[in-house]
Amino acid sequence: MNDPLTADEIEAIKARCEQATAGPWKSFIETRENISGSDFIQTEGEDIYLTGATEADQDFIAHARQDIPRLIAEIESLRTIDR
Q1: What is the pTM of this model?
Q2: SS3 sequence of the chain
């Protein structure tokens, strides 16, 4: 099992997330959405086009923009309970 995240590691993860383009991000996959054009991740800024990503990879990346802040908030909340 991995060691628990340190406060510095959590702050570094939060900083990377805050520096990324604002969310929410949404994954659009041409064959799944029945749209024509490229597969991409829609953001509040420029869309992101990936090369060589599977559908699962693209969905993971798109959802990470929303998932990571929620996970960090949950970790921080649980840590206040344990103290």
Answers
A1: 0.83
A2: CCCCCCHHHHHHHHHHHHHCCCCCCEEECHHHHCCCCCCEEECCCCCECCCCCCHHHHHHHHHHHHHHHHHHHHHHHHHHHHC
